Amino acid sequence: MKPKAIAIDEYKRVAGNKKYQTIIADPIRHKPLEILPDREKDTLVAYLKEHGDSVEVVVMNMSHSFKAAVSRALNFPIILADRFHFTRYIY
């Protein structure tokens, strides 16, 4: 079953020559789906084009790179700011 909602975030972990990776998770079931090797837009676009055909909602930190990747790869999903970054922005 492919999720209708995904959450996208980056995290710091040195792997190879990259300092950050991207995690894709199912926010409904609270399960990780994939860890991408970097946080590059093209990496995320490739993943979303291959695995995101059922995605209707994306929860993310609102980075310009992530927003551009989601817009390029998916069919106009609802984009939500994640709670942590939304609260941080307000304060």
CATH superfamily: Ribonuclease H-like superfamily/Ribonuclease H
Main beta-sheet strand count, sense and barrel state: 5 strands, mixed
Shape: globular
Specify Rg, calculated over alpha carbons: 13 Å
Low-confidence blocks of residues: none
What does this structure look like?
The protein has one domain: Ribonuclease H-like superfamily/Ribonuclease H (Nucleotidyltransferase, domain 5, 2-Layer Sandwich), CATH 3.30.420. The chain is 32% helix and 37% strand. It contains 3 helices and 5 strands. A 5-stranded mixed sheet has the order 3-2-1-4-5. Helix 2 links the parallel strand 4 (57-60) and strand 5 (78-81). It is globular. The chain starts with a strand and ends with a helix.
Task: Describe the structure concisely for a colleague.
With 91 residues, the chain is of the alpha/beta class.
